[in-house]
Structure formats: C-alpha cells, structure tokens
C-alpha cells in the first residue's frame, strides 16, 4: 500500500501536469485565434477606437437614410400608393430639398398591407433638418399628411447609415421582386457583424442581387437591413442555394448566427413610382 507521503507526491505531480497542460492549451488557443480565426476577416475594425457608426459607414459620402414602415388600411392601399407617388414626384424631387426616394414597395410576403419607403438625405443630419424645416411650412405637404393619416393604421421609421462594404443602392430596371432581411443583433455585436459581412458580401454579388446594406442609428437600435433583388422567388432560391457551394459562405453563417436576437424577411414588390424596379 502506498504511503501518505508518496500519495501526496503523486498528487503534486498530477496537479503540475494539469497546470502545464492548461497553459499550453491556452497558448495554442490564443495562437490559433491570431492566425486561422482572424484570417477569416478581410475588412477589420477595432471597436475600441471609435463609435461603430464611424467605423462601419462609408467615409466618402455623408448620406443619411430613412426607412418608413406604413401599415395601411386594406381598403386604402391603392389610394395610398397613388397619393404617395404624387407627393414623391411633386415635392421630394424638388432640387430645394436635399433628399430623394431610393425605393418604395408594398410587402407581398410578411406583414400585409404594408408600404415601405427608403429615403436618402444627401448631406447627413443637416440635410434631414433642412427638409423637415421646409416641409413644416409647405401647405401642400401638410394637406397630404392629413389625407394620408386617414389611410394608416400605424407607422414607424428609423434613421440608417450604409455599411462601407455594401453596394450603393442605385436605380435599376425591372421587373424585380425585393427581399429585405432585417436582423436585430445583440447589443455590442455590430462591429463583429460588419467584420464578417465585409468578407461574405463577395459571395452574394455574382447575380447582381445585392442592392444595399444599412444599420440603424435612431429608432430600434442594433438593427441591420440587407436589401436584395431577384427576378422571382425561384431565382431567389437558386441564388441563395448557390452561395452554399462557395467555400467560405458556411463560415460566415456559422459565426454570424450567434450574434442575432431575431430576424425577419419581407418579400416586397416595387410601386410604379419606385426608382428601384
């Protein structure tokens, strides 16, 4: 039978071996993190150096975007679309207003009887403020708001910035259907999301389906909107499936899914007046 002294000695040796093993494992993990794992990122930003709005948005432009979600009374949707198109053409294409409509849609699959509008303010927050001040004194616009209010059930909006690595949302010919995929992220994960998607976006541009990518600044926070265009639901399925055949796309999905709190997909049809057809 082993003596108490020898048992104590063996226990010390086992403890030292365990400590050394843990230290080696930790060094290997840290080394792997600096090598293989970090090599997944192409466009990397450091969250400690600045606000994510400055790190992830486009530096060459100072554009601010507004997205509107209007839930319309079912019997009023056609009249609403006509009224909205008239105002967009007569007011917001005026050169005195530093804003323009990027796209207008009706939700086809998702929340029903819903209108979605995406606006661009050239010049950022000062341009937004200028537009709001001018519209307050525009009698025609004030009458429009009163008439529109009769048609709405609810409405909400967000102010957005563009991701620096996404496509610029430019007018395009149709016919197309659009998908807006909206992600509510865990607070503090926007930088990580941006780092992954800066690499992943290249897997989703071959068929010209990538329209624009945005993240919220005011309204619901830590929200991302990805806007895609497809010829049909069938082409959407084929395009999305083809991404899985490309080496690296699976890694993007694997690492971004844990960052998401909730997500939503809208299939949208452009209105007749939308620049994005």
TrEMBL record:
Protein name per its UniProtKB record: NIPSNAP domain-containing protein
GO CC list: mitochondrial matrix
Function, as annotated: Protein involved in mitophagy. Accumulates on the mitochondria surface in response to mitochondrial depolarization and acts as a 'eat me' signal by recruiting proteins involved in selective autophagy.
Subcellular localization: Mitochondrion matrix
Lineage: Eukaryota, Metazoa, Chordata, Craniata, Vertebrata
Annotated InterPro entries: Dimeric_a/b-barrel, NIPSNAP, NipSnap_domain
Gene Ontology process terms (BP): mitophagy
Family: Belongs to the NipSnap family.
Residue ranges the record marks as coiled coil: none
Alphabetical keyword list: Autophagy, Mitochondrion, Transit peptide
Pfam families attached to this UniProt entry: NIPSNAP
Segments forming domain NIPSNAP: 178-275
Leader sequence residues: none
Gene3D superfamilies: 3.30.70.100
Origin: domain of life: Eukaryota
């Amino acid at each position: 039978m082993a003596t108490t002294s020898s048992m104590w000695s063996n226990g010390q040796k086992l403890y030292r071996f365990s400590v050394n093993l843990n230290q080696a494992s930790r060094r290997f993990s840290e080394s792997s993190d600096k090598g293989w794992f970090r090599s997944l990122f192409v466009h990397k930003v450091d969250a400690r150096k600045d606000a994510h709005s400055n790190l992830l948005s486009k530096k060459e432009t100072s554009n601010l975007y507004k997205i509107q979600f209007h839930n319309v009374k079912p019997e009023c949707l056609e009249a609403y679309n006509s009224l909205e198109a008239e105002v967009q053409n007569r007011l917001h294409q005026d050169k005195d207003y530093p804003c323009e409509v990027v796209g207008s849609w009706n939700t086809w699959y998702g929340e029903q009887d819903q209108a979605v509008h995406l606006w661009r303010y050239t010049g950022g927050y000062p341009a937004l403020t200028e537009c709001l001040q001018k519209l307050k004194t525009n009698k025609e616009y004030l009458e429009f708001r009163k008439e529109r209010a009769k048609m709405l059930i609810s409405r909400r909006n967000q102010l957005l910035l563009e991701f620096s690595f996404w496509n610029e949302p430019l007018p395009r010919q149709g016919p197309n259907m659009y998908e807006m995929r909206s992600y509510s992220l865990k607070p503090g994960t926007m930088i990580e999301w941006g780092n992954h998607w800066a690499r992943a976006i290249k897997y989703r541009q071959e068929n010209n389906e990538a329209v624009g990518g945005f993240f919220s600044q005011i309204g619901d926070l830590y929200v991302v909107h990805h806007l895609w265009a497809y010829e049909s639901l069938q082409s959407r399925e084929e395009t999305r499936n083809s991404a899985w055949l490309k080496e690296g796309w699976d890694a993007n999905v694997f690492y971004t899914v844990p960052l998401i709190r909730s997500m939503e997909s809208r299939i949208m049809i452009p209105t007749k007046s939308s620049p994005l057809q």
